[in-house]
Protein 1
Amino acid sequence: MAVSEQNLSGNRPRSHNQAAGFTAIPADARPLAIEARGLVKSFDGTRAVDGVDISVPEGAIYGILGPNGAGKTTTLRMLLGIIDPDEGVRRVFGHDRPHDIGRLIGYLPEERGLYPSMKAIEAIAFMGALRGLSLKEGRARGAELLERHRLGHAAGRQIRQLSKGMAQTVQLLGTLVHRPRLVVLDEPFSGLDAINQGKLELMIRALAEDGVTVIFSTHVIHHAERLCEGVAIIAGGKVPYAGSVEAARDRIPAQVRLETRAREGAWLSALPKEARRNGDFLQFPLPEAGVEPLLRQLIEGEAGILSLSIERAGLHDAFVAIAGEAAARQLEADSAANLGETRA
Amino acid sequence: MTPTDASAAIRPRLSALEAAWVIARRDFLAVLFSRAFLFFLLGPLFPVIVGGLAGSIGGQVQREAVSSEVGLAMSAGDNAALLAASQRLAPQLGGALPVLRQVPEAASDPGFDARAFMEARRGNYAAIVTGSLAAPELVGTEGQLRRWSGPVSLLAGSALSAEPATLPRVSKLAVATSAASERSTRIQTAQLAQMLLFLLTMLLAGMVLSNLVEEKANKIIEILAAAIPMDAVFMGKLFAMLGVSFVGIGVWGLAAWGMWSIGSEAIIAVTGFDLARLPAPAVGWPLFIVLGVVYFAMAYLLLGALFLTIGAMANTVREVQTLSMPVTMMQLMVFFLAAYTIKQPGSGLELAAIAFPLSSPFAMLARAALDATLWTHAAALAWQALAVLALVKGGSLLFRKRVMKSGGAGRARKGWMRRPPRNAAEPAE
């Protein structure tokens, strides 16, 4: 596989965590929480995952970004040891078998699962017990977590009596009750309304602030862009890019938006051939020589500059460039479907 | 929250037994405190109560309907002599003799026709004796004639003898047992124990079939599979259902004991079965009961592991129901194999039944009733425990492969066995 692997530290001017004021340890100094090399998984002769390489440093928020069916869940399931890869190796905190360090991992699957007849507090304690927490301690921590998330009143209610959003929160708290060092969330924003998505983002940031490594899959670009320090872009079971969000954006040259008084003139020949008119604006990639020679030519050619802005490419642009138009379109369709589902 | 504080001091994972305990505890309590469990407990009691009532009524009706009275329609003197003979022989022959009763219609009618009387379905006599002591004539249906002609002949002969019968006294010298009688009577205990073991496993092991359906339907299986090994999930579920079964057996046992205490005489009268007269097993009752409990546990775990695996392949309750029929047939076959070998001790077939893990508990329980050797039980239990482990391991592997779609490389290989990743390029740092 031709993987464009980049370490998270590579040309990363400013991570989101740094932007949010978190104390970020330089990525190259951090040990890896997750390391996967050449993971391959086939189902009934079809390759769902085809040679995935991922490196996630400890304490990072890391996104696996791709449309539905790209292989995100299969990759996460392999990393967690739920299924074994057909080929390749995976290591979680240096261990080949993730079950050996189950106590350190928290997992929220895409398809939420709780025993409907269990009380909320018992469900949290049970999930903690699966990770080695005593039931007594699990109940105490569960009560504290429910109170903190304003669900104290629901502690004694059965899961079947809770709303979907409340049940999802209970499951997330169950994922965190044993205080894991690695939290794996499969499509955590799926099915949540905007308010709960915001709460979840805050929760993920708080976890990272406490040194927890968070890895989540999503098909919504802005979640990855807002939260993640690193991403793996996955499409058709392959990972054409894994590295920092900043480096992904840096792959696309900045875009220049130019508005001029004159519509025609010799100055037009100074523009790169990729320049396209979009209404009153001309849009083109920032020339390699920079903006100064261009400005000079525009002034000399009497273009009459009304406005000129240089815009850095977003993760969406990077996704289009890396994964291709088709994958990007599917990603947008998935996002729209998810939005519709949430509204419904 | 300080995420790393707890993880530093605590072991990084649960042992398989601890993980199984977490699953077993949840499942056990969930089943025990469900409303359905109450019905489950009451279920087997309904047929027992209904059967008991029906049996009691039926028995009474039968007792009233089936008469063992033989009517006397001879001369008054002959009747009296026959009655006296019956009284003389009763201490020796007891129930083998008919109850004799004079037919009033015959006494008042010199031309009494016994045949016409019987055909007119008058009275409630099994048969009627006419004629004289020297030439008694018995009138009745074929069956009754076969039954009573001998005793009537004996009574008439005794009545005819001039002297009062003085029967020689038989002195009795009892021996504790004999090989032939011991074996033949203990077979009854062995058969009954096997039957009970079969009924309990058939009644209870079937519950395991649907045990993973809830987890699969609710997607909880993902959380379990991510947290603990699948063997521990299987083992935990098996032991939870075994615990539930013991609760059920305890409740039913108490109910049976209560019923026996209250109405043992009625039960004996209706069923003809007296528990107290059941021959003692070769290993003695206390050890036999202990072995019964242990072999039940083994039979349950063995069949349960198989059923859990089969049931785990099903996606819906409907599929589980479809699977239950072949599973029941399989249980029956296992039971028949073990039951068939009771009368063939030491034969190749008995050894095969002992060696085949699924029939082994049944065959060995029968052996405990017939043979006092103990080491064979220790060996059989070790073998059965191994088989349980193998079935659980195999079942969980199958589940991971077929349902969780896992497999292939498995755990990372070590040393020279390690397989290089495809296009094993060193990751760019």
Protein 2
Amino acid sequence: MPVSGVSYLPILIFLAVAILFPVVSLLLARVVRPSNYSRAKMDPYECGVETQGEPRQRYSIHYYVIAVLFVVFDVETIFLFPWAVKYRALGLFGFVEMLVFLAILVIGYLYAWKKGALEWV
Amino acid sequence: MSDALIRNFIIPLVQVLVVLGVAAGAVAYMTLVERKILAFMQLRLSPRRVGPHGLLQPIADGIKLLLKEDITPARADRALFTLAPIITVIPAFTALALIPFSGGGSFNIFGYPVSPWIADVNVGVVFLLAISSLGVYGIMLGGWASNSKYPLLGSLRSAAQMVSYEVPFGFSIIGVLMLSGTASMVGIVEAQQKAHLWYFVPQILGLFIFFVSGVAETNRLPFDLPEAEAELVAGFHTEYSGMKFALYMLAEYTSMIVVACIVTTLFFGGWLRPFPSVSALAWLNFGLDKLNPALPGFFWFFLKTFLVLFVYLWLRGTFPRYRYDQLMKLGWYWMIPLAIANVILTGGVLLLLRR
């Protein structure tokens, strides 16, 4: 398999076409669609009732906790990818090393569990 | 035109256009297939007015969405509101660049070798994960830019759900990488061919975790909390209409197809026919391999992908929607520990077999 950057070029081309596609279709829709302004249409949808107050209010702290936990776990996953590819070459040493690595992760996970960070409601 | 230009630019461009066209058509007809299968499962009629057996329904739907008025609410953040569906579509499509649709040979078109995949990079799986996780930005931005209550709640839920299931989604692939010893999508299929074993056998737990997380990642039933119509109207796309709404739907169905393609490639041997090493079953190639060794691969790849997609619809027809706390509980208390256990188990067994 070529290691040079040339193998990434088709992905860039795909990216360019994938960017063009929604832009062109939105522009096309802009030309052909009707546009009848009316005040009521422009209101935020609230099941037909008059809009009450600001929509951007405070929301549960749990969303932030989940986001922080995600960063920790996902970075751990990324560290495991190169290890997994070379697993057969690493042998017993690799296995033990991974156990140590995962043990640290699991301790953190159990801590979050005990602290109730994963508890919803 | 110079040789390098054709090789590195023109051929990939044509490949991209073909794949994009096929994908767009597949998405359109996926909506019809979904409605047909759900109708069969629930003993009711499916669309059948437009064209024979409703076969022209997707085209009618497309024209309708194109001609519908596109409303941007007065309170919305106009730029972000337009940008959000575009951001959602781009990664969903780009992920298709990494999928090997067939293999075992390349086509010879006007004297140039054309591979049956667009790109094969040595970090294929990681790249695919990276691209597919970008979709959450579009959904979050869309909900935020709408500046309305239901979309905001829907997008918050969606973000928490998608990042929660991102972890087991990535973790469950590690077992496959340990078996194959490569992260290239083509390499993984070739490793399955060499091992005479599709990885769903040793990685059945990994497959289960990956598929369930994939369903949650694509916001499909029974995990479609971000657009739970019983409580949040339509979730993050409540304020969207016309072509922008269509782009969100396009992204959702494309991601479904991408997840099905990844499942096929990683766990079900990609383009390989059943029992590729048994020559008595060579008739399964339908003689197409004599024309070109890569031809029958397309058939098997698309068949397997369709079967995975069918399971998606089957889930939708069978299970009621989860409650949000149940969903998060399933993700954090079951999927992540199971995924970690799968890695340790695979590592241990591989170590024992080596002796």
